[in-house]
């Protein structure tokens, strides 16, 4: 009936309270009594009874034939019997074979609230709706994982193809794979194990060098470094430097080499050593710059960043980094919860303990206590002594458990997702054969990849539809 020439009725449109109106829903025609519809005044059909002009009618239906006095709705006729049953009985019933989201959108269109669903169907309806929401979240997460894995695999393969046009490309590609892909071959595994041992040895010597049992005294009685530790340090620096230079020489794209986070970590792990040597040379040549020695001491402490080099050889550490990088919203939410809790309980502790405990006599001092308590660390250096203070501390600890657990669950789910993706990506990289010139890309399930894309698009459109304001609210705002 769309496209039918409508004629404006003279004097507007008036609905008799006892008259029947004709409804056409996608070809399904029905006559409904006005008194039946007026029992539910907030529904779309009942609002038609209050319309006084054709413009207001067309705001509620898709077309109107003023000759036949028929209202046309371009909706699914298979679902309209459920709406009719609602007007007759006052309750909604949901069949098991119905799509929950289609039914939910349909009753929302007709202005029927979900509260009218009968008790025999309400529990199953809401459970199915929650399960579908959970499945959509999983599909969006999987889609992100699939997309990211696919893009990373193509990036890896694109880098490998760059060697075909370079001098000694085949040999450089083998070395690149051996250095950047720890599980690619036996040689790469040996290099990976050796690199891990050097990192752990360097960290161990740095820790032992801070212990008085391993320190040597110089002629002035000042503690100095053990020459054996210095030898281990120089060997480690030599190995780290050789690794970085070798990776840089055989890199497929030198201009973008340091855009990779792991290459930046390799540079940061050796940079303090060379900066310390430079500072020591400057201090020896210019005694007036003796204060630079303190900078050298700070730089020596930066050697601890070498532990991050293990991320190149650990799937778990790389997954953790990806999780933190993609969980900034959850981390921000966690910090916000903690900030609110710490502020609240620090004031509470100050109020009840300021006269009984010197350690909690100021609000900033109570911040430390509240932070330690909410994170369930509990050093015990500052404790409340009054009964009210202990009750406040108990509430603070319980609130801290709840505050920390909720965002951590979301972060853990993302970690599991990224860990699974990283393992699949490593397997795909190791399965690539580059002995000859590359002729085809590795096998990737493009059907699943684009299926996830379509599912993500449909889920986004569905969420936009459900999150949009109802027709009733829109009409109220217009009027």
From TrEMBL:
It is found in: Cell membrane. The keyword Transmembrane applies. SUPFAM superfamilies: POZ domain (SSF54695), Voltage-gated potassium channels (SSF81324). Signal peptide: none annotated. One of its GO terms (molecular function) is voltage-gated potassium channel activity. The chain crosses the membrane at residues 190-211, 262-283, 331-352, 391-412. Keywords: Cell membrane, Ion channel, Ion transport, Membrane, Potassium, Potassium channel, Potassium transport, Transmembrane, Transmembrane helix, Transport, Voltage-gated channel. InterPro entries: BTB/POZ_dom, Ion_trans_dom, K_chnl_volt-dep_Kv, K_chnl_volt-dep_Kv5/Kv9, SKP1/BTB/POZ_sf, T1-type_BTB, VG_K_chnl, Volt_channel_dom_sf. One of its GO terms (biological process) is regulation of potassium ion transmembrane transport. Its main location: membrane. One of its GO terms (cellular component) is cytoplasm. It comes from the Eukaryota. Residues 19-128 form the BTB domain. PANTHER family: POTASSIUM VOLTAGE-GATED CHANNEL SUBFAMILY S MEMBER 2 (PTHR11537:SF60), VOLTAGE-GATED POTASSIUM CHANNEL (PTHR11537). Potassium channel regulatory subunit that modulate the delayed rectifier voltage-gated potassium channel activity of KCNB1 and KCNB2 by altering their kinetics, expression levels, and shifting the half-inactivation potential to more polarized values. While it does not form functional channels on its own, it can form functional heterotetrameric channels with KCNB1 and KCNB2. Each regulatory subunit has unique regulatory properties that can lead to extensive inhibition, significant changes in kinetics, and/or substantial shifts in the voltage dependencies of the inactivation process. Belongs to the potassium channel family. S (TC 1.A.1.2) subfamily. Kv9.2/KCNS2 sub-subfamily. Heterotetramer with KCNB1 and KCNB2. Does not form homomultimers. This is Delayed-rectifier potassium channel regulatory subunit KCNS2.
């Amino acid at each position: 009936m769309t496209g039918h020439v409508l004629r404006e009725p003279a004097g507007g449109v008036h609905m008799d309270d006892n008259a029947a109106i004709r409804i056409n829903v996608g070809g399904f025609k029905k006559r409904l009594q006005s008194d039946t519809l007026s029992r539910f005044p907030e529904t779309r059909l009942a609002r038609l009874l209050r319309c006084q002009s054709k413009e207001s009618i067309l705001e509620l239906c898709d077309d109107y034939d003023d000759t036949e006095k028929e209202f046309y709705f371009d909706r699914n006729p298979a679902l309209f019997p459920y709406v009719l049953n609602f007007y007759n009985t006052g309750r909604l019933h949901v069949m098991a074979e119905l799509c929950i989201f289609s039914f939910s959108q349909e009753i929302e269109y007709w202005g029927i609230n979900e509260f009218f669903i009968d008790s025999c169907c309400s529990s199953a309806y809401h459970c199915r709706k929650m399960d579908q929401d959970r499945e959509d979240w999983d599909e969006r997460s999987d889609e992100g994982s699939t997309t990211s894995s696919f893009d990373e695999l193509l990036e890896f393969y694109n880098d490998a193809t760059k060697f075909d046009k370079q001098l000694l490309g085949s040999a450089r590609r083998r070395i690149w794979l051996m250095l950047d892909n720890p599980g690619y071959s036996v040689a790469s595994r040996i290099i990976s194990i050796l690199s891990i041992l050097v990192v752990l040895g360097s960290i161990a010597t740095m820790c032992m060098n801070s212990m008085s049992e391993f320190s040597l005294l110089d002629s002035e009685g000042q503690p100095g470094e053990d020459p054996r530790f210095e030898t281990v340090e120089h060997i480690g620096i030599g190995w780290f430097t050789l690794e970085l230079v070798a990776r840089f020489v055989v890199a497929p794209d030198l201009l973008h080499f340091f855009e990779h986070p792991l290459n930046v970590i390799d540079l940061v792990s050796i940079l303090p050593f060379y900066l310390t040597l430079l500072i020591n040379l400057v201090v020896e040549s210019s005694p007036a710059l003796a204060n630079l020695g303190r900078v050298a001491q700070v730089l020596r402490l930066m050697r601890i960043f070498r532990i991050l080099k293990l991320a190149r050889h650990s799937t778990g550490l790389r997954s953790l980094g990806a999780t933190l990088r993609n969980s900034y919203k959850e981390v921000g939410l966690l910090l916000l919860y903690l900030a609110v809790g710490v502020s609240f309980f620090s004031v509470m502790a100050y109020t009840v303990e300021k006269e009984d405990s010197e350690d909690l006599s100021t609000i900033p001092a109570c911040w430390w206590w509240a932070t330690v308590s909410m994170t369930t660390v509990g050093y015990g250096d500052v404790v409340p002594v009054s009964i009210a203070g202990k009750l406040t501390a108990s509430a603070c600890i319980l609130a801290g458990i709840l505050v920390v657990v909720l965002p951590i669950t979301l972060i853990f789910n993302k970690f599991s997702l990224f860990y699974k993706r990283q393992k699949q990506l490593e397997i795909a990289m190791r399965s690539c054969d580059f002995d000859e010139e590359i002729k085809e890309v590795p096998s990737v399930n493009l059907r699943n990849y684009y299926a996830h894309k379509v599912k993500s698009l449909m889920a986004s459109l569905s969420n936009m539809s459900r999150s949009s304001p109802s027709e009733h609210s829109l009409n109220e705002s217009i009027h």
